[in-house]
Amino acid sequence: MMKDTKLFVVMPCYNEEEVLGETSSRMRELFAKMEGDGLISPDSKIVMVDDGSRDKTWSIISGLCDSDGIFRGVKLAHNSGHQRALLAGLMTVKDECDCAVSIDADLQDDINAIPEMVKKFDDGCDVVYGVRSKRKTDTFFKRFTAEGYYKFLASMDTEVVFNHADYRLMSQRALNALAEYKEANLFLRGIVPAIGFKSDSVYYERAERFAGESKYPLKKMLALAFDGITSFSIKPIRIVGWLGLLVCAAAIIAAIYTLISKFIGSSSGGWASLMCSIWFLGGVQLVSIGVIGEYIGKTYRETKARPRFIVEEYKKK
Question: Is residue 2 part of a domain?
């Protein structure tokens, strides 16, 4: 029996000219199979979001849209970053689809998990997370830091799905709820679980990138990780406060010891200990100012209320 589920797959793209040919071919085949199996409506679409690419990404997307009505393109006026590009695509299509799946254009995430996501949506789930079952393709360093990061986020009271990135299905109801989150500092991996609708997970193994280079170097990964912590938790500021109290207590103990030593006449030159104390206190102060400054900076960006993205063109056949 045919389903009338209208599925849109949203794919953020940044300088992905080397992968789009293979990506579009694989996605077209998957959609044909899902439609043949009665999982999705013939009106389902593949939406590629060009995040201000500097190569031929948009011309390739535009050509796909002209040649095949299954493709649509969203061109952002400026490079906005992965999270904002993803949000731009989801917000552009949210009123046209029954559900939307977000996935990166390099297709390292297994597209064969999408049919299972749609089945869970048909069973009543508003959010279905794509979760990595293993990390065989990662280096030891990346595996260790990634898993440690998820555990650290949990310890900071940030609700995230372990080993889940941005591969997920969201119903139209969930997308409308996501639209209510207006913050400029986007961390969708933390926002989506906070929505609270019925959810489930689909497990898959991540493949190697088949062409091109990763658009998420260590610097960007660290920036996203720090955003995830500071956007959803004030624990770092509380830790700074407790550290300040601890340092004050240590200073009081040191002062008492110094006075006692002075009165009993056993004081001696303490240049080394004095310098260590000064450097330690100076370091604590600078780190504390940095952490607090990060929160102030985020508040500054939020109060300006600038648009998170600007869509230059929404291309359809």
Answer: no
Q: 208 and 261, same structural domain? A: no
For residue 147, count CB atoms less than 10 angstroms from its CB and return exposed for 0-12, middle for 13-18, buried for 19 or more: middle
Range of the domain at 239: 235-304
Write the pLDDT tens digit of every residue in 107-124.
889 999 999 999 999 999
Indicate the pTM of the whole model.
Answer: 0.75
Residue 43 belongs to some domain of the structure: yes
List of the chain residues with pLDDT < 70:
1-3, 135-147, 156-157, 209-234, 254-255, 258-259, 261-262, 265-276, 279
Reported as type and span, the H/E element at residue 63 is helix 57-67
At residue 100, the pLDDT reads 98
Residues in CB range of 161: below 8 A, 6 or more apart: 129, 131, 189, 193, 201
Pairing of the two strands 164-171 and 199-205: unpaired
Domain shared by 106 and 164, yes or no: yes
What whole-number distance in Å separates Cα of residue 51 and Cα of residue 14? 5
Tell me whether residue 216 is exposed, middle or buried, using C-beta atoms within 10 angstroms of its C-beta: 0 to 12, 13 to 18, 19 or more. Answer: middle
User: Where does residue 274 rank: exposed (0-12), middle (13-18), buried (19+ CB within 10 A)?
Assistant: exposed
Containing 170, the helix (H) or strand (E) segment is: strand 164-171
Q: CB of 47 within 8 A of CB of 89?
A: yes
Domain shared by 288 and 187, yes or no: no
Which residue bears the tokens 């062409």? 211
